[in-house]
Amino acid sequence: MSREIDQREPRDDDGRTLRAVERGASFVITRDGAPAARLLPFEGDRALVSRDELKRTSADLPHVDFDRLRCDTEDLVDQDLRDPFTVHGEAGPQRVLPFVGMFSSGHGDISTRL
């Protein structure tokens, strides 16, 4: 459990708070009696894990067939590239430009003919 300390205590205690944290203690730092921060021991950089730990933690994961995943993805994703601002209607393709002319025409018409 964390002990509550006032924000001034770490500054005024000649390093006792930091030494306690290095030994494993944790503190909740308060400002005007309200919790403002938590002071915890540094546990090291967890971004990198050992090869053995990676093998151990991923041993139970299912096998992924990457060729099948790619085929499934290609079946689900539309492979045609289209202009997201082009609208096809009875008058033919029109390019819709968001907010262009919206206030200048007075009619709210924001599309321009290609």
From TrEMBL:
Full protein name: Antitoxin (DNA-binding transcriptional repressor) of toxin-antitoxin stability system
Family to which this protein belongs: Belongs to the phD/YefM antitoxin family.
Keyword DNA-binding set for record: yes
Record-level Gene Ontology MF annotations: DNA binding
UniProt lineage: Bacteria, Bacillati, Actinomycetota, Actinomycetes, Streptosporangiales
UniProt keywords, alphabetically: DNA-binding
Taxonomy, superkingdom: Bacteria
Species the sequence originates in: Spinactinospora alkalitolerans
InterPro entries in alphabetical order: YefM-like_sf
